[in-house]
Request: fold
Amino acid sequence: MRIVLFGTGPFAVPSFEALIDSPHDIVALVTRPIANSGKRRKSAENPSRDLGVDRNLKIFDPHSINEQEAVDQLVALDADLFVVCDYGQILSSDALAAAKLGGINLHGSLLPKYRGAAPIHWAIYNGDQETGVTIIHMTPRLDGGPCLTSASTPIGPAETTETIEPRLAQLGVQCVMDSIAMLEQWDGQSPIGEIQDQKLATKAPRLKRSDGKIDFTRSATDIADQIRAFQPWPGTFTSWTPEGKSEVRLIIHQAAVVTDQPENKSFAPGEVIVSDKQNLIVQTGQGQLSLVKVQPAGKKPMAVADYLRGNPPAAGQMLG
Reply:
């Protein structure tokens, strides 16, 4: 089968490597253009491009894949199928029509949950205990096509987006291969895959820096999930104001829900209730949160015990 790959980020790389090593004919890689920032491009900015260069693929990087010139280039490739993952643009119906069988997309959630750009982050943020990958037969509607294959994996209580994403990328390899095998047997007309239940659809919008700000009226469990979800970006942060000084930003890298301390309604959300040589514990809207690893502004991440040897917030002071 003649296949064109569409990808930019690291999530696509394991599946693309497997396809390049397979009997399929990989005729090109379509990826995002290099940003004209005036700075030297780092390899991590586009792992899919780096793979394409290493494996001598023909590379296209149009600013918009849906402009007529780009669509004409796709038509000229005479592809049977497009395989899309972590690309960054939505293909129009005209672009999809340039391949005989359209396209498939490897998505990092169990669709129809978490449609959008940040499915892994939002699954952890919402406290889900399971996630997975889904291969959809693409339509111009965002992540809305029929599901061809899927696979699931548990989310451990201490896992972060950084630890789960590589596992999902590997989990997707066999799903991609199985979906292509399905399409090789497809007549191009009869229904294929499982139609998504629109009533179960949820959104996973692209992250903003402001998403990382802690709202201490949420529960300790919710905030701990947020900290796990938003690593490495946008991070999870709060601030406090030392007496007589300006506001200080504090990034929280790790925290734990306090389970051995009775609920005390006299504390306000965001209030520091313990600040000693070893522990920094904050009241939330429900329960207490013990900060484990933090990063003061302008410094490296550190264990909270090291932070407490400096000038930390005292009991009774407010975070946020």
Observations:
- The two ends are 56 Å apart (CA to CA).
- Confidence is low (pLDDT under 50) at residues 38-44.
- Residues 161-184 form the longest helix (24 residues).
- Residues 7 and 87 are 4 Å apart (CA to CA).
